[in-house]
Amino acid sequence: MTPTIRFGRTLLAILALLALVASSCGDDDDTTATGGDDTTEAEATDESDEPADGADSETTDESDDEAASETTDEDGAAAGQSVERLRLAGGDFGYPSPFAWVRGPGWIQAGYIFDTLLWLDSTGAFIPWLATEWSASEDGTEWRFTLNPAATWHDGEPVTADDVVFTYEYMTTGAGSGKGSFAAAGLQQVATVTAEGDHEVVFVMKQPYAAFEEDVAASVLILPQHIWAGIDDPAEQRGPDATMGSGPYILESADPASGSYLYTANEAFHVGSPVVKRLEFVPVNDELLAVQTGEVDAAEIGLEQPIPEEQMEAFESDDALGMIQAAGDWNRALHFNLAAGFPYNDIRFRHAVAYAIDRPDLVDRILFGRGEPASLGGLAPTHPFIADDLPTYEHDVEEANRLLDEVGLVDADGDGIRDLPDGTTFNPQLKASQRFSPDTPQLIREYLLEVGLEVEVVILDRASADEAGVQGDYTLQLHGYGNIGGDPDWLRQRFTEPANQGLFFRSWGFENERFDELAAAQLATLDPVARKELVVEMQEILAEEVPVLPLYVPDRVLFYDIDTFTNWYYTPGCAPCRGSRNKHMYVTGMTGGF
Predict the structure, then answer these.
(1) Taking the chain, what is the end-to-end CA distance rounded to the nearest angstrom?
(2) pLDDT of amino acid 183
(3) Stretch 545-567: mean pLDDT, rounded?
(4) Helices and strands counted in the chain (H then E)
(5) How does strand 548-554 pair with strand 249-255?
(6) pLDDT score for 44
């Protein structure tokens, strides 16, 4: 095997490469899971758990710009910054073991305790974490990692290659299989994992796998074999053994019901003693108010949180607070269940609904203008692989009415509401989760009523809404999820079977042979230029077929106490990291690298 070292091969690096190729060739083209027993969610769903694309982020702090973003040495290290206590808004994120966390914030908290082989810095670049170096074969079917020999579990036992092998086996064929792994899609692509000595690990893939670093190396929480080998019901495990990791923090207490968690620094952490010594997640009623009153040290605007401009201006003018703002990679989307039959499986109906919904108006009214309409291709607007010139289905009531007439949905009894072709009443139901803005489904109801479609809005609790998505128990449903800024294999995972099994945000009933061919091909294509061409065509198919109508992508805004900690950033490609969650900043006090 001839190894090709791939340190930090991220989408940002791909973007730079594509730009270079375009310049040299004269080409104008540029480039969640829930811990538990039965539902796998490849994260990205919480209104407070998605980051924005850090490539476009801005750091603003009128009183202390240098402290907020520029007081660093040549390596990016904060100038002597050490924080004894950092307080963040809590919430019910489940128990922070590898199998009992809930959604993105829960996975991130489990990651404070447990390491992955690689991690992400502020630019979205993969950096050494539990592994000190890594390489891939030229054909991308073999990945080799060297573990940090200084890494130990919290009980002092050394971390070995056997632990990595055990983790893979436990999560794929052992007691931990099917228990909500964040890395489920990636683990399916691994053929074997073997140890070569104490610190060398080799992954052999079933085929070349372009998303390996993101989906496996930076996503699988490594387990201590001497603990988990004796655990047969991992989702129910609690106590010290369940949180015996090798990560930068040790769990002192957890009360998911109240939203309280306490972590203290692991002074023996192999990367170095964390600069933030104590992480406290505390329950607060109003996160933004809490940062102003000093209850927490940083707060994000919830993705659909209705903050009027005058209130934003008040926060921005507060001399005690700094702010970062960035484009988003979370979206709210309307899912059609094509498997439900007529008219949902008729492309003309889906186009009509797309024309009827005024997406820019949703941005103004739901987000107060802080965001943008989502791409119909399913990727974040700032994604390096975003397709240009996709259909936008600009608000057009006349065209929506024409298409609905063509489908045969007409007002048979003169009451102003369209009926089915046989004259019976057509009352579609729109399901939505109470976790997100209730205004969005009501506005959609208004848009559709304007074209004669009377929609019944049904608001469900989060668990019921997610379950409806998993089971396909809906005709129309609004979902909220992120990760649309991560590896573009996300599209394959959502829109093809069996990759989308168990995902609440999966597409139901969408079948397209060409899309399936492209999805399989891009997964095995390591050349970023060639891969982008495949992914662009996938987006074009989605934008034409509209099995899902992405609505909007909110901006991300974080306010923080400038006297406590200033090295905040958004992490492109890390769906659940948020602006106040990436452990890299807590450990290193740096905005990039080490």
Answers:
(1) 30
(2) 67
(3) 92
(4) 18, 21
(5) unpaired
(6) 38
Distances (CA, A) of 460 to 69, 104, 440: 42, 20, 14
Of 594, 591, 508, the closest CA to residue 122 belongs to 591
Sheet with 131-137: list strands edge to edge: 3-5, 131-137, 142-147, 200-205, 190-196
Tokens of 443: 């506005």
Selection from 146, 170, 47 nearest residue 97 by Cα: 170
**Contact indicator for 69, 334 with CB cutoff of 8 Å:** no
Peptide bond connecting 498 to the previous residue in cis, omega within 30 degrees of 0: yes
Instruction: Give the tokens for residue 11.
Output: 């989408």
Write down the pLDDT at residue 306: 76
- Name the band, by pLDDT with cuts 50, 70 and 90, for residue 425: very high
Backbone angles phi, psi at 360, to 5 degrees: -60, -35
* Six-digit token string for 347: 């492309």
> Measured between alpha carbons, how far is 455 from 466 in angstroms, rounded to an integer?
20
Q: Find how far residue 36's CA is from the centre of its chain.
A: 19
pLDDT single digits (tens) 60-95: 333 333 333 333 333 333 434 689 999 999 988 889
Give the residue-averaged pLDDT of 542-555. 96
Q: Tell me: the pLDDT tens digits for 557-571?
A: 889 999 998 888 888
Residue 593 is given by DSSP the state -
Q: How many CA atoms lie within 13 A of 283 on its CB side?
A: 10
The alpha carbon of 262 is separated from its chain's Cα centroid by a whole number of angstroms, namely 24
H or E, element range at 445: helix 439-449
Our CA dihedral for 223, 224, 228, 234, rounded to 10 degrees, sits at: -30
DSSP structure class, residue 79:
S
- Residue 449 identity (one-letter amino acid): L
558, 563, 582: which is closest to 572 by C-alpha? 582
**Are 482 and 43 in contact, with CB atoms under 8 Å apart?**
yes
pLDDT in tens, 144-167: 999 999 999 999 999 999 999 999
DSSP 8-state symbol, 246: S
Q: What ranges make up the beta strands (E) of 351-444? A: 371-373, 429-433
Q: What gap in Å lies between CA 155 and CA 366, rounded to an integer? A: 49
